[in-house]
Every structure is written in C-alpha cells, then in structure tokens.
Amino acid sequence: MVNEDLTALEALGIAIQNEITAQKLYQDLAARTENDLLKDRFLNLYQEEKRHQKMLEDKHRELFPDVELQIPPLGGVDSILVNATAGLSLKDVLNIAIREERGSREFYLDCAATVADLSGKRMFRFLADMEFSHQMILAAELEIIEKYPAYYEGAIKWQAETRSKTERPGKKK
Questions:
Q1: What is the CATH architecture of 8-153?
Q2: What angle (nearest 5°) sits at the alpha carbon of residue 161, between those of residues 157 and 167?
Q3: pLDDT tens digit string along 130-167?
C-alpha cells in the first residue's frame, strides 16, 4: 500500500526506479538462457519496461515542469535483484521477477487510487495492467521450464511418431 504521505512526485520517482530495476532484471534473465525464444521474451519485457520508464518520465515533465527528476537510489531488494541474481537459478530469478511484477502492480494500483490527476490515474492503472500481464507471462514461462527443463537450455528435441501405412487415426486394427 502506498504511504499516504507519499507525494505524486515521490511516487513517480519510485515508479521510474522500479522500471529501471525491472529492465536490469530482464537483461539478466535474457543473458542466462540459450533458448532464443525465451531470450526474445525477456528482451521484449525489457523494451516494455523502457517504454514504461519513458511514460513516467513524460508524466513527470508534464506535472512538474520546473522540478528536476529525482530517482531514489537503488537499495534493499532492488540492489539484490540487480547485483546478486548471478548465483540463483533461472527458476529462482523468475520467481523473484513474478513477485516484483506483482508488487509493482499493487504499487501502481495504490498510486491510481491516491493520485488526484485523472490522466495520472489512467496512467497508473495502465501500468498496473501491464505489470499484471508481465506477471502472467513470467508465470507461464516458469510453468514451461518446470514441465520441460530442457526448454531454456536450447531447443527441445522431439521424436517423431511412426505409423505403418495401413494405420489411420481412429481406425482399429
């Protein structure tokens, strides 16, 4: 829940920090996998987080044209996410990313509920929906990796089924 004393200016700074942290996390995830499809998924999420950052920075310029943008320094969990994921498995980092996307969504929903500016409300709701979408994408990838561990290590080798020429689907011998 957003601290009631948190100003719109501070909320924007925190939101921008969250987007930068997410970008670094998705770059890290992309670097961890040899699977091109999964790598592309992470790089796409990275690009979406960059667009979110720009949207927030644009909103900052619109609402506070005379105030220099102040992004809080990384610390705590964000620092762990950016600097200490190297020792974790891809599944562990995916779980962290899912948790972070869930937390970002909740933060944006709280911001939408407390900000007075109507366009700010819409922006925060949009970002909340996007973070939920990211959470679902990551959960789907985690499920695939848990079911098919070789998925992120490279191409999965499927073995073709063989049938005799006389067999047809649905026909008994």
A1: Up-down Bundle (1.20)
A2: 170
A3: 999 999 999 998 998 888 877 766 555 555 666 666 66
What gap in Å lies between CA 38 and CA 45, rounded to an integer?
A: 11
Q: Which two tokens stand for residue 63?
A: 């609402």
pLDDT per position as a tens digit, 45-104: 999 999 999 998 998 998 889 998 888 776 544 545 555 566 777 788 888 889 989 999
- Decide if 102 contacts 135 (C-beta within 8 A): yes
**Sequence-distant (≥ 6) Cβ neighbours of residue 129 within 8 angstroms:** none
Domain positions in the chain: 8-153
Amino acid, res. 35: N
**Residue with tokens 């700010």, as numbered in its chain:** 120
Give dist(CA 124, CA 109) in Å, integer: 7
